[in-house]
Amino acid sequence: MTFLAIDIGNTRLKWALYERGAPGAALLAQGVEFLEHIDRLAESDWASLAAPDRVLGCVVAGDAIKQRVREQLDIWDSPVSWVVPSPAEAGVINGYDFPTRLGADRWVAMIGARHRVQRTTPGRPMVLVMVGTAVTVDAIDGDGKFLGGLILPGHGIMLRALESGTAGLHVPTGEVRTFPTNTSDALTSGGTYAIAGACERMIQHVRAHCGVEPRCLMTGGAGWKMAPHMSAAFELVDSIIFDGLLVIAEEREAIRQRLAAS
Ligand SMILES: Nc1ncnc2c1ncn2[C@@H]1O[C@H](COP(=O)(O)OP(=O)(O)O)[C@@H](O)[C@H]1O
Ligand SMILES: CC(C)(COP(=O)(O)O)[C@@H](O)C(=O)NCCC(=O)O
Ligand SMILES: [K+]
After folding, report:
1. How far is the C-alpha of 186 from the C-alpha of 177, rounded, in Å?
2. Binding of ATP: at which residues (predicted)?
C-alpha cells in the first residue's frame, strides 16, 4: 500500500512517497518543486514512480494551485484526499474559533509534532514553529489541545515589504549579527530576531499557562536559517508535515477498516 504525501505551501510543493501510510514507514522517494514549476511534475519527478495506492495532501496555496496539482495527479488512478482541519483528529483538539479556517499545514504539522512528543515525552506541552513563506508559532498543551498561534511574515516577505516601503533599503542579503553595523546585516538580523522574539514570547505564554517547560520543535524550508539563532533549544525536524500526514492516513485507514468490518 504505497502512500504519497503532498504538502503545498505558498512557495513550494513538497512530496514524499512511502512504502505504506503509517508512521515509521520507509521513505521510497521525495522531491520539492517551486509552484511555478508544478505543471511539469507528471512528466518529470512523478513520471518514473509507480502509481501510489493512496495520496493525501495538505494545501494552503489556494484552489487554482490545487487544481493544477490535481491535473498532474491524473497520470495515476490513485484515490486522492486533502486534509481539512476538523474540531479534533488523531489526538489533537482544534482550539480555533472556526476550526476549518486554520491552515491545513498547521493542523497536519501539529498532529505530526504531537505524536513525536507523545512517543518520547508524553503529556509535555509544545511550541511548534514553521518557517516558510509565512511563519507560524503554535501552542499545544499537555492534553493535545491547540491553544492558539501566531502568524508573522517570513524572511522574504519582511524584506520585500521593507524594500517596497522605503527608498534606502535595497541591499544584498546580510549576516545575522548581535549589533549590526550596516544595512544588509541590520535587515537580516531584524527579520531573524523578530521571528526569534515571537517564539520566545510564545514559550513564555505556554510556560505560564501550562506550568511546564514546553518542548520546542521547528520545521519549514527556512528552519535551518532560524535554528542557530534561537535562545531556547529547538529540535529541527524537516519531516513534521509528512509525519502528520502518515499519522492521519493510518488513523483514517483504521476507521475505514472498522466500518467495513461492522
Ligand atoms: N534552498 C532553498 N530553496 C527554497 N527556499 C528556501 C531555500 N532555503 C531557504 N528557503 C526559504 O524557505 C522558504 C520556503 O519554505 P517552504 O517551507 O517550502 O515554504 P512554503 O511551505 O510556504 O511553500 C522560502 O520562502 C525561503 O525563504
Ligand atoms: C499561515 C499560512 C499562510 C502559512 O503558509 P505557508 O507559509 O506554509 O505557505 C497558512 O497556514 C494559511 O493560509 N493559514 C490560514 C489562516 C490561519 O491559519 O489562520
Ligand atoms: K508550509
Report:
1. 8
2. 7-14, 133
pTM of the model: 0.96
Structure confidence by residue, pLDDT tens digits, 56-65: 999 999 999 9
Does 255 fall in a domain? no
CATH of the domain at 24: 3.30.420.40
What pLDDT was estimated at residue 262? 86
Q: Is 45 a catalytic residue?
A: no
Ligand 2 atom with minimal separation from the 136 CA:
1
Q: Report the separation in Å between the CA atom of 17 and the middle of ligand 1, taken as the mean of its atom positions.
A: 20
Residue 145: DSSP 8-state: B
Q: Where do the H-state alpha helices sit in 38-172?
A: 63-73, 104-120, 155-165
ipTM of model over 0.90: yes
Cβ atoms within 10 A of the Cβ of 72, count? 20
Report the pocket of ligand 2 as residue ranges, CB < 6 Å: 9-10, 60, 101-103, 105-106, 132-134, 136, 151
pLDDT attached to residue 56? 98
